[in-house]
Specification:
- The protein is of the alpha/beta class.
- It has 2 domains: about 120 residues, P-loop containing nucleotide triphosphate hydrolases (Rossmann fold, 3-Layer(aba) Sandwich), CATH 3.40.50; about 270 residues, no CATH class.
- The protein contains 19 helices and 12 strands.
- The chain has a 5-stranded parallel beta sheet, sandwiched between helices. It has a 5-stranded mixed beta sheet with strand order 8-9-10-11-12, sandwiched between helices. Strands 6-7 form a two-stranded antiparallel ribbon.
- Strand 3, helix 5 and strand 4 form a beta-alpha-beta unit.
């Protein structure tokens, strides 16, 4: 089992709270992490019908039987339990770990009954740094192009196509088979529990069409037309995918520098392997020549930067920047009053023009002396002491 960054951070960051909430998509490792960090806690999964029935019909008896310390897995399945948890937490001397894959429902329950009592953490599938053992990676050094990773033995295409769900790597599974089952069992089950979707085939079509828009401006009207549902239904279904930790929306930054800006977000998938599956890419060789290879690579890099922040217990201050004329920065990281631009290129060949978008943006922003980073699929670092650094992705992520 790969070590997780949060494994060493949760005890210190949650000290003083009577409860810890760990949210994230199904199969991201929440249960394993909880048991590792809190090995003496009793464990109950509320996915079990027996435990769920007991918690609903006799919540006091349920909590009493668990004792002073307990892990409640998928606790959002019994929302009635939150008010009782508040009472038990306020008595003192008790500690709970609450996990959930339906993030909105869990956080809604915490916000209504347990506000101020719960330390919140988000766990996504493995970060590349976790898979390779670089668990001390610092996100701010990475966004500044100061990482020190080692070149992987697998090709980039193999890494992207396989994805980073823990079970695939722990068990040595064939990625596309496991991911196909993941979509059919977990995603569709969450859809049924979160929303009355009359035709699951339409929802699956939306998921596949959304994959073709990964890293592009979200076109809700086009999606709705192609799927054959209304725009409000499309928005609701997209919300389900966000709630389930399948996709996330990267928002545009508001800094306009006198330019008219695009205000539409970009959709990204939490895992590149899942994105590949939805695009029909079932082998690494298929990705090498696929017309959307650049989008898959960008999705991977953006998602990995997001993991670096979230797995270090920090908010991910990530945006993109694009004006109405098409000038764009793939990733803009906000550090107080400073903005750090990052360009993502799937090429393995360094060329001076890779730095051009960042240099134009720095001049436009009035920060010509600031720095930026180009992330590419090459082997060497260029401009390590210069204003713009070009770094292989594996050195940073």
């Amino acid at each position: 089992m790969n070590p997780r960054v949060l494994e060493r951070l949760i005890p210190g960051l949650s000290a003083g709270y009577p409860a810890v909430a760990i949210v994230g998509p199904r199969q991201s490792g929440k249960t394993t992490l909880s048991k590792r960090v809190f090995p003496s806690h009793a464990y109950v999964s509320l996915e079990s019908l027996d435990w769920r029935t007991r918690a609903r019909t006799d919540p006091r008896g349920f909590l009493e039987d668990l004792g002073d310390n307990a892990i409640l897995d998928e606790v959002q399945r019994v929302p009635e339990l939150f008010s009782y948890l508040q009472e038990y937490m306020d008595r003192g001397g008790r500690h709970y770990v609450l996990t959930g894959s339906q993030q909105f429902l869990l956080m809604e329950g915490i916000g209504q009954s347990l506000a101020g009592r719960v330390a919140h953490f988000e766990l996504l599938p493995l970060g590349w740094s976790e898979l390779t053992g670089f668990v001390d990676r610092q996100p701010w050094k990475s966004v500044r192009g100061e990482g020190r990773g080692e070149k992987p033995t697998s090709s980039t295409a193999e890494i992207l196509q396989r994805g980073l769900y823990p079970r695939i790597h722990d068990k040595g599974l064939i990625a596309h088979r496991w991911l196909d089952d993941y979509v059919r069992t977990y995603v569709e089950r969450d859809v049924r529990s979160l929303s009355q979707v009359a035709d699951l085939s339409q929802f699956t079509l939306l998921l596949r069409l959304l994959a073709t828009q990964a890293g592009s401006l979200l076109n809700m009207a086009t999606l709705a037309t192609q799927v054959g549902v209304s725009i409000p239904t499309t928005k609701r279904w997209l919300g389900i995918l966000e709630t389930s930790g399948i996709v996330f929306l990267l928002q545009p930054h508001h800094a306009n520098f006198g330019k008219r800006l695009v205000k539409t977000p970009k959709p990204y998938f939490v895992d590149s392997g899942l994105l590949c599956l939805l695009l029909g890419i079932r082998e690494a060789g298929h990705l090498v020549t696929h017309p959307l290879r650049g989008h898959v690579f960008e999705n991977f890099v953006v998602s990995e930067f997001r993991k670096l922040f979230l797995h270090n217990g920090q908010r991910a201050p990530l945006y993109f920047w694009r004006d109405s004329h098409g000038m764009e920065i793939d990733l803009l990281v906000e550090d107080g009053t400073e903005l750090l631009p990052i360009e993502i290129k799937s090429t393995a060949t360094w060329r001076p023009d890779l730095e051009l978008p960042i240099r134009k943006w720095l001049a436009l922003s009035g920060r010509p002396d600031s720095t930026g980073t180009v992330v590419y699929d090459g082997d060497a670092v260029h401009g390590s002491r210069a204003q713009v650094r070009t770094c292989p992705w594996w050195k940073l992520l």
